[in-house]
Design a protein that fits this description.
GO terms for molecular function: 3-mercaptopyruvate sulfurtransferase activity; thiosulfate-cyanide sulfurtransferase activity. Its EC number is 2.8.1.1, 2.8.1.2. Pfam families: Rhodanese. Helix 5 packs across helix 10. 45% of the residues are buried. The chain has 292 residues and is α/β, with parallel strands linked by helices. It contains eleven helices and nine strands. It has a five-stranded parallel beta sheet with strand order 1-5-4-2-3. The protein folds into two domains: 123 residues, Rhodanese-like domain (Oxidized Rhodanese, domain 1), CATH 3.40.250; 109 residues, Rhodanese-like domain (Oxidized Rhodanese, domain 1, 3-Layer(aba) Sandwich).
Length: 292
């Protein structure tokens, strides 16, 4: 893991946002208060429950990202607006999360859904980590797979107010003037060569492109700390410089926040992202490989 903050069996260290499959196995065996959540999601299959039922970490509760880690609104709100704190708390209680529990999130898509859960729950005061490599790492380790639909006893978690780590569309527009705004989408979408989901192609003027893939190895696991720090430094992210990120709809940008936090970089997320920006009349659009 990037922070090299491995924890001993039955405990969970504070050095890393990530746990390995072996660490999660030990944690589950220790009797510690752990709630595992399965956040399988992608734009082309927003409901990953079928994949969850085909095989998941024993005891894991399925979390539908598009209904419990997001809410719904007008197109000008973006595809995945933030849920209210009350909505997130109700969801966490449905997952069986109690006060003092450790939440471990995972998915099967290089940490995207899990990162969205991490970003929201961390703001809410929950001790939350991400399974490095997701369900694929768990399977590769040869650990047991379950196929039941876990319905836990409702929990009693009380969440803190969320939203302080988010920025608005106006703040995103002004951000490059005083800091660095990162675009976490694929390079061809940043350049405006293609746009499969939104009404306009291109990027927010002043934004710099660092795709999510820059932080991961071939197995979808987080790269080492030195490599990550060099990647951020390569676009001018240095101590004291304000940093924010956006993507298509605020999910991949949460992964950027997760990785940045892993190496000690505080980073805000623009949750409306390109889906909100491109659906808002009058917002300028830049194209090409330069910030513009």
């Amino acid at each position: 893991m990037a922070g090299d903050g491995s924890s001993s069996p039955g405990t969970l260290g504070i050095m890393s946002n990530f746990v390995s499959a072996a660490e999660l196995k030990d944690l589950l065996s220790s009797g510690s208060p752990v709630r595992v959540i399965d956040v399988r999601w992608s734009l082309d299959r927003p409901d990953g429950c079928g994949e969850y039922l085909s095989g998941h970490v024993p005891g894991a509760v399925f979390v539908p990202l598009h209904t419990e880690l997001a809410t719904h609104g007008e197109a000008a709100d973006g595809r995945h607006p933030l849920p209210s704190t009350e909505e997130l708390q109700n969801a966490a209680r449905r997952w069986g999360v109690n006060h003092g529990d450790i939440v471990i999130a995972y998915d099967d898509s290089k940490g995207l859904g899990a990162a969205r859960a991490w970003w929201l729950l961390r703001q809410a005061g929950v001790d939350v980590r991400v399974l490095d490599g997701g369900i694929r790492a768990w399977k590769a380790a040869g650990f047991e797979i379950a196929t039941d639909d876990v319905v836990p006893v409702p929990g009693d978690a009380v969440l803190e107010e969320i939203g302080a780590d988010a920025i608005s569309i106006d703040e995103a527009a002004a951000f490059p003037e005083s800091g660095i705004l990162l675009d976490a989408r694929a390079p061809e979408r940043y350049r405006g060569e293609t746009e499969p989901y939104d009404p306009a192609a291109g990027h927010i003027p002043g934004a710099l492109n660092v795709p999510m893939a820059a932080y991961l190895d071939a197995d979808g696991k987080i790269l080492d700390t030195d490599t990550l720090q060099q990647t951020f430094a390569g676009v001018g992210v240095t101590p004291g410089i304000p940093v924010a990120a956006y993507c298509g709809s605020g999910v991949t940008a949460a992964h950027t926040a997760l990785v940045a936090d892993e190496v000690g970089i505080p980073l805000k997320v623009y949750p409306g992202s390109w889906s909100q920006w491109s659906n808002t009349p009058g917002r300028p659009v830049a194209t090409g490989d330069q910030p513009g």
